[in-house]
Amino acid sequence: MSAADRGEREDGRPRRGRVRLPSPRPVLARLLPPGRRRDRVADTVAVLAGAALCVSVATDPAGIVRPYGGASAALLMAPAAALMLRRRLPMTVAWLTAGFAGLVWVVELIAPGALLRVDADHALAPVPWWPPTAPLAAYAVMAFPRDAARPAWLRALPVAAMLVPIVRLQDVLPEASLRSIPAQDTGSVEGIVFRSVAVVVGGALLGLYAAARRRVLQGLTERAERAERERHLLAERARAEERARLAAEMHDVVAHRVTLMVLQAGALRVRARDEPTRAAAEELRGTGCQALEELRDVIGLLRRDPGEAPVPSSAPLPDLSALVADSAAVGVPVELAEHGDPPSASPAVGRTAYRIVQEALTNARKHAPGAAVRVDVRYRTDGVTLTVRNAAPSREPDAELAASGSGTGLAGLRERVELLGGTFAAGPHLGGFRVEASLPAYLPLAGPVP
């Protein structure tokens, strides 16, 4: 391996890398995240900066502005205060600043010395630029276009209007009034004009850059959002196609086989000679018919279009008192509390509600022996909310009983509830366990399985 590959110089000493200074943007983003708060802070800083410049120019004893007991400072504060509207009314702010500069220029042409000290008998301090808020207004009118279709040259008109009185400043401010020191070009009228033009044009160009950067970021954001929406639509289409394929497979294979089993059980019930066989065949046929109904619901859910209106297929919600009584009969203290009037609902919703309570009671019996269980059922006009809570177990659960089962009961319930368009939550609660589900009353279903 060569010295260059090892990051060393030819003399064997380690090569020093370039030191990169950290960018202040991450710190600014953490302190002031993008939004209205940052905009308000920026507007406040702009107003304070403009006000500070105006006050310093109007109250300087050696300045070129006549103070008039603070009246000049108050007059100069008008364009500074207008900067608070620089985002909502940038053209108005820019034209106000340009009009103020033009007003001072016209007044001095008509009545020299009315606002500026053109006849001072001592050396005057040169202003940084004139008018003080011109660069801030020029930045605002170019950086915050209210109408995206408005061309840049139209927004540049107030900037050009600001430059007219600046360029013609020597008409109202003679060179002799500054009493400039020889070779100090920054104190001459030409120096003030140059600084003012450079700062105003620089502010306008910086505003153009800010507006262009904002448009680019907005375009990238919209493109990313559009790509995300397209990706979501493609994923939805893929899921819909997979669900349609599964529904077709279940309809063509599983439903056909279960239908044959129901028919064969019915034939066995008719041909059987003894009563126990006929009873078993009838029970098998009833179970098969119930399986066909549930299979129809599942196929309908798989074929459902999310934007489809609900089908008014309804049935009364199942009675949970028998299920609670069965659990109480095996030693599980269960309390059932029902609130409201049970609404009519789709058959799949009723069966899902029954399965949720059944699974929750089974888990409480297996994993929390001796714990009190409370079943809260809140009926709504548009659905039902089920909450099953059990306290902490009073004794250790049976290891063999707790290990029985597939362990996917709650996960299967969650998928089934979400497929119905409801919500499902399960987890520890106050030392025990809680299962809560909210189900809609109706859902769109496909036609019955033939």
Summarize the structure.
This protein has helices at 24-31, 36-59, 71-81, 90-110, 134-143, 152-155, 157-167, 189-271, 275-302, 321-329, 347-367, 399-403, 409-419; strands at 315-316, 334-339, 344-345, 373-380, 383-390, 423-429, 432-440. The chain is an alpha+beta fold and 450 residues long. It folds into 3 domains: 25-228; 236-302; 315-440, Heat Shock Protein 90.
Structural description of this entry:
55% of the residues lie in helices and 9% in strands. With 450 residues, the chain is an alpha+beta fold. It folds into three domains: 25-228; 236-302; 315-440, Heat Shock Protein 90 (2-Layer Sandwich). The protein has a five-stranded mixed beta sheet with strand order 2-4-5-7-6, covered by helices on one side. Strands 1-3 form a two-stranded antiparallel ribbon. Strand 4 (373-380) and strand 5 (383-390) form a beta hairpin. Residues 3-8, 180-185 and 445-450 have low confidence and may be disordered.
